[in-house]
Design goal:
Elements: H1 13-24, E1 28-32, E2 43-49, E3 54-60, H2 62-73, H3 77-85, H4 91-103, E4 116-122, H5 130-136, E5 142-149, E6 153-161
Antiparallel strand pairs: 1-5, 2-3, 2-4, 3-6, 5-6
Helix pairs in contact: 2-3, 2-4
Length: 162
Amino acid sequence: MSVQTEQSPLPSRHAVRNTIEGLVGRDVDLSDGVAPPAKSTNIVAVYVTDQLKTAALAVIDLECAARIGGALGMIPRGAVDDSIKARDLPKDLEENCYEVLNVMASIFNVANAPHVRLYEMYAPGSVVPADIAALAATVGNRMDVKLKISGYGDGSLSIVIK
């Protein structure tokens, strides 16, 4: 007999690393980190259940988003660094980051937990709804890591479970 939980468990670092590493085709290291400070340049991905109930968030800073997008698209590191210096995320890097965040929904889909999918990605400069911003700042059921992609550098990633 199996018991269905009402929420997805916090994924393991191993699952996060393997998912991103498998997509970008480069070594990815995760180490202890801190939550990215709330900034308008952050990306916030909202994952929902099939009943459209918010289940989890991924919050990444501009550096992490640019490096993930660059690594997926094999965009030269110099172009990625230039976008970070300009505090701008070009459309190609944003779309590549979206693809990685979309596939990352798989880390929440485990046995006996609700099915979860990416519902929305708030790009830099987007207005994040107050309830989502409050959840992103929640202390507790979360993982804050420094993500380093070989050849591209590092950034901050947080996963928050509601």
